[in-house]
Amino acid sequence: MTSPTNIVESSSIKNNPKIDQLDLVTLSENIKLWGKALGFQEVGIADIDLKQHEEQLQQWLDKKYHGEMDYMEKHGMKRARPDELHPGTLRVISVRMDYLPENASFAHTLKDKNSAYISRYALGRDYHKVLRKRLKQLGQKIEQQVGQLGYRPFVDSAPVLERPLAEKAGLGWVGKHSLLIDAKAGSWFFIGELMVDLPLPVDQAVDNQCGQCVACLKICPTQAIVAPYIVDGRRCISYLTIELQGAIPVEFRKAIGNRIYGCDDCQLICPWNRFANTTQEDDYQARHQLEKQPLLDLFSWTESEFLSNTEGSPIRRIGYQRWLRNIAIALGNAPSSEAVVAALKNRLSSCESELLNEHIEWALAQHKKQIPIVNERLNLRLIKAIEKGLPRDA
Ligand code: B12
Ligand code: SF4
Ligand code: SF4
């Protein structure tokens, strides 16, 4: 995988005595070993040339696919230029960390409309913290070997194009759902990067293996994958339930079903996830049985219960009102029962916020009109596919 060419290309580096004394091939092999010892399942190295992505990134922004995620355009083309983000960067070390918990209960929870479906990446500890800490440790380890090192860890929050970088580093290919896939591990993993000022040998990208498949485009409940490799963020349930601050557009509420935080459908239908391993990290195991909690139980949490039960979890950042907003939609999509209607009315009477009340009124109207969930046939198709293809996790 490693190409020993490309080792020293800039004159400032060539004249650097620190570099002359280093065996960069051995160092890169060691970096991969240290990364794996730190709990990363894969480690690869890429150069920082993302020019070919700049136009597509700009088109994506011009179409406003980022919606309210202002940070996406704020950094402009810096996102595609790691050396502008962290001056001196020559290589990006990309890492992968698997997060699929034991007993993912995908089909079980998607089927039971009285239960809440939470994206499986969000059931345990916030991954930003886990990855950043380990990446920092990797940076320190490299620094011990080479003396002074310029490095900076990035995980998600930073405005860098993580998937194109990971693809370059040989960690997998970007699938038509826009996520990175590894042929042996599927896509249930996070990625992170360590930018370094060392001219390490780079890895080679792997071939895209999506072929003629379009399963993810077809299964998406809100048609957010508007073309192969292009996701309109504003339509994605992950954006609607996690990123969007205000009201969730009515046109998407039925299709959201019981997904109260994120969505996994495009990954669940992907044939490459049949080969995925469960995580080795205790931190990503579900807390408080969040993989299958009844909606009514979650809706009854007080704000202090919400804060204590989501401590250290990525869920916490949406805050209590948006948490209730999302559950109200799922309750609007749940089978009608006295208990559901009573819980909604009870919250309405406490008048917590205009945002929440409007969603509760919408939910109550669904029970009055007995409006069925749109895309339910799609959902049943997905459940069948999970039960057949992912029996261990169903
Ligand atoms: C913003 C964001 C979102 C947004 C927008 C999603 C999106 N597809 O862009 C929302 C909130 C919707 C989202 C949802 C999710 N996200 Co998110 N998200 C990000 C974030 C912060 C930035 C992504 C980004 O840059 N988008 C902008 C577009 C322009 O970039 P892009 O899709 O990579 O586009 C490039 C290519 O597609 C290509 N391209 C564009 N057009 C075309 C056309 C052709 C023909 C070709 C070949 C290529 C091509 O060029 C583009 C520019 O380079 C990254 C972390 C990061 N910093 O990278 C995490 C990240 C992508 N998310 C992640 C996850 C886990 C998710 C969810 C699965 C969470 C969930 N379960 O709910 C969903 C999946 C939804 C989906 N199908 O994408 C992981 C993905 C891990 C993996 N295996 O790939 C990341 C990498 C976070 C991490 N550090 O692990 N996310
Ligand atoms: S996460 Fe869900 S809503 Fe978003 S693109 Fe994938 S299937 Fe569609
Ligand atoms: S479902 Fe099919 S098209 Fe979509 S990412 Fe997976 S292999 Fe590619």
Give an overview in words.
The protein has helices spanning 11-14, 17-20, 24-37, 51-62, 71-74, 82-85, 106-111, 127-146, 162-168, 215-219, 237-243, 250-256, 265-268, 295-299, 303-309, 319-333, 338-349, 354-369, 376-389; strands at 2-3, 42-46, 91-98, 117-118, 151-154, 173-174, 180-181, 189-196, 202-203, 225-227, 230-231, 259-261. With 394 residues, the protein is an alpha+beta fold. The chain has two domains: 2-104 and 119-203, no CATH class; 215-274 and 288-393, no CATH class. Strands 2-3-8-5 form a four-stranded antiparallel sheet, with helices on both faces. Strands 1-9 form a two-stranded antiparallel ribbon. Helix 17 runs antiparallel to helix 18. The longest helix is centred in the middle third of the chain and has 20 residues, at 127-146. The radius of gyration is 22 Å and the shape is elongated. The two termini are 35 Å apart. Residues 1-14 have low confidence and may be disordered. The chain binds cobalamin and iron/sulfur cluster (2 copies).
